[in-house]
Specification:
One of its GO terms (cellular component) is cytosol. This is Cytosolic Fe-S cluster assembly factor CFD1. It comes from Emergomyces africanus. One of its GO terms (molecular function) is iron-sulfur cluster binding. The protein has 7 helices and 4 strands, in the order H-H-H-E-H-E-E-H-E-H-H. Strand 1, helix 4 and strand 2 form a beta-alpha-beta unit. It has 2 domains: about 90 residues, no CATH class; about 100 residues, P-loop containing nucleotide triphosphate hydrolases (Rossmann fold). Strands 1, 2, 3 and 4 form a 4-stranded mixed β-sheet that branches. It has about 200 residues and is α/β, with parallel strands linked by helices.
């Protein structure tokens, strides 16, 4: 779901102040018919702006009001009631995955976002370093276009889990943009190259 889907012209700029952004985020979370979802991924812009504050407040509010099922007693932990309780009481906010590039200017922003998560009681799942080198489409060798390892160092310093590094991959970019129909792997071993950083 995106605000872009609601615009008459996808090229229109949305020039909104904080209160209007907050109201739209609240409406997305409470009024959209999401259906049966295992996970709902929310992609946010960098920083700790109005969008992040509104999301944190709304998700934490929803989390505190949706746990309405009474917990089963110890004697019936394996019963259907226990299974229903576990299903209905999954954490509404599983946590945040923070994405950085290796450069110091990016890791500095992510440090602020980690502090934001701590202050708003959002669990941090871990950190991913994006654009970590360039994966050659011919041989698969990864070369460092920028600095490398900044995300891992920052994660260790902040005491959070480092989930991995993702290089720039032309094939992956084409797949995301829909150039490679259906996300099919080419016969040139592109899938093998991507396995190196999975």
């Amino acid at each position: 779901m995106s605000l872009g889907f609601l615009l008459r012209d996808r090229g229109d700029a949305v020039i909104w102040r904080g209160p209007k952004k907050t109201a739209m985020i609240r409406q997305f979370l409470t009024d959209v018919l999401w259906g049966e979802t295992d996970y709902l991924l929310i992609d946010t812009p960098p920083g700790t702006s109005d969008e992040h504050i509104a999301l944190a407040e709304q998700l934490l509010t929803l989390a505190s009001t949706t746990r309405t099922t009474e917990a089963p007693t110890t004697s019936n932990q394996d019963s259907a009631a226990a299974q229903k309780y576990q299903k209905n009481n999954k954490p509404l906010l599983a946590g945040a995955v923070l994405v950085t590039t290796p450069q110091a200017i990016s890791t500095a922003d992510v440090r602020k976002e980690l502090n934001f998560c701590a202050k708003t009681c959002i669990p941090v799942i871990g950190v991913v370093e994006n654009m970590s080198g360039y994966s050659c489409p011919c041989c698969g060798e990864v070369s460092n276009v920028f600095s490398s390892g900044g995300g891992k160092v920052m994660a260790e310093e902040m005491g959070v889990r480092f989930l991995g590094a993702v290089p720039i991959d032309v094939g992956f970019g084409e797949m995301v943009e829909g150039v490679r129909k259906g996300g099919q792997e080419e016969e040139d071993g592109g899938g093998d190259r991507r396995d190196k950083w999975r």
